[in-house]
Amino acid sequence: MSANSERYVIGVDYGTLSGRAVVVRVSDGEEVGGAVHEYAHRVIEEALPGSGVRLGPDWALQSPADWIDVLRHAVPKALAAAQVPAERVVGIGTDFTACTILPVTADGHPLCERFPERPHAWPKLWKHHAAQPHADRINALAAERGEPWLPRYGGKISSEWQFAKGLQLLEEDPELYGLADRWIEAADWIIWQLAGVETRNVCTAGYKGIFQDGAYPSEDFLAALNPGFAGFAGKLGADLAPLGGLAGRLTARAAEWTGLPEGIAVAVGNVDAHVTAAAADAVRPGQMVAIMGTSTCHVMCSDQLAEVPGMCGVVRDGIVPGLWGYEAGQSAVGDIFAWFVDNCVPASYAERAAEAGLGLHEYLTSLADGQKVGQHGLVALDWHGGNRSVLVDHTLSGVVVGQTLATRPEDVYRALIEATAYGARTIVETFEAAGVPVEEFVVAGGLLKNRFLMQIYADVLRRPLSVIGSDQGPALGSAIHAAVAAGDYPDITAAAAAMGKRETAVYAPDKERADAYDRLYAEYRRLHDHFADGDLLHRLRAIRNEASA
């Protein structure tokens, strides 16, 4: 095929702090240009923009204007970097963090545009955990009533998800709840802006919206939580759109934003983690993809339905049509390392790192890399952002055991990395014990750049690690979905085989280190099980919240 006849698609990945666009060649998945746009408001955690209204503990919001700015800036810049004529672009696909959700009017306008001084009018980011008490009530009532959908979520739904956040909206700002005609995932809202039609994708509906076997939780169940909540499902849209499907065509307004041709294919919305499976060509049963960044999401396909304790969910067609898609995750991974470096490392380390020409993370890694397994005498729990799997409790908190007056920053840094690896092993073992074998562990995300961390994961997991062959997995995955929506491939599996990228067994476990880590992992599990009920950690958080009020 000549260069003049090549077709291209664009994938747009909406992350926690920025959005990125990648231009991808349809024939082979080659990424020919990209651009990143940082959100002006980043994560809104302390006070609302403009009004300065203070937010409570565990709040995390975003601004929809930032998402539109990604279309205005990142897409044209990516196109310019690729030096691809806009008329060669045949489709656009997007992915989003989830559950990132917002209240809007019937025509799609965010309520924060009309009520910027009211916290509940703004989109709640995935890491908004202030709805944990509402999630607790949902879980308790569902368990008491034996709701059939509860085992599909490992026995607990998360405070991050649609229903917990929706119940919080109702009970803390009932007027706004009434004004919200739609309660919509950002993954679907951005498609509404691109194509001019409201759609709901099967992925977020299933994993974040408790949609199972063709229905949301019953009105009777919702009314038992709060009579005003009975009709909540009516705000969630109707028919669900299949992944890889055609949501609509690019509108004139969106064409003006992006510089793309009006009328090109707009793919059905998706979640950043789930779409990455296609980018890694890991959409077959037994391939677990761990997307490792600020948090980690574990997704995998299977032809078997099983109830995995503590999983985030199992959804028919949730990753690719025709298979069951499983999800689990860790609420904080890279965020833990960033917190430690930003708050717990003395200035002298920064000076030494600068002298060595290294960043602080690189410097701590170099020091930790010189240790033998267990030399620091520490074991930690990776719960600084709560526990997504397998305990599903976002009010848990981090624990480090074994510190002495001889403990150094690099010791704790290594122990925190190891803790996240132990958390990943807990998830893998839980899946396999439930009858869902993990035959290949594939890593994607920004933490791939840390070879030391990757080797620790291989040693702790006692298995080889395959790695995605792209630095922009979600954006590439969204582009793959766009190629399917544009009709260039019959389905996601075929498109992933042609356009996805994966290197197998890049990191292999070392037997001696793996044996040593088995001993430490056993201690991690003892600590994990000891604090799993959250009794002490919940009391400490309650004291903190009272003192902060």
Automatic annotation (TrEMBL):
GO terms for molecular function: ATP binding; D-ribulokinase activity; ribulokinase activity. Coiled coil: none annotated. This is Ribulokinase. The keyword ATP-binding applies. GO terms for cellular component: cytoplasm. Belongs to the ribulokinase family. Keywords: Arabinose catabolism, ATP-binding, Carbohydrate metabolism, Kinase, Nucleotide-binding, Transferase. The keyword Kinase applies. It holds the Pfam family FGGY_C. Residues 8-277 form the Carbohydrate kinase FGGY N-terminal domain. It catalyses: L-ribulose + ATP = L-ribulose 5-phosphate + ADP + H(+). Its EC number is 2.7.1.16. Residues 289-486 form the Carbohydrate kinase FGGY C-terminal domain. Pathway: Carbohydrate degradation; L-arabinose degradation via L-ribulose; D-xylulose 5-phosphate from L-arabinose (bacterial route): step 2/3. It comes from Microbispora cellulosiformans. One of its GO terms (biological process) is L-arabinose catabolic process to D-xylulose 5-phosphate. NCBIfam families: L-ribulokinase (TIGR01234), PRK04123.1 (NF003154).
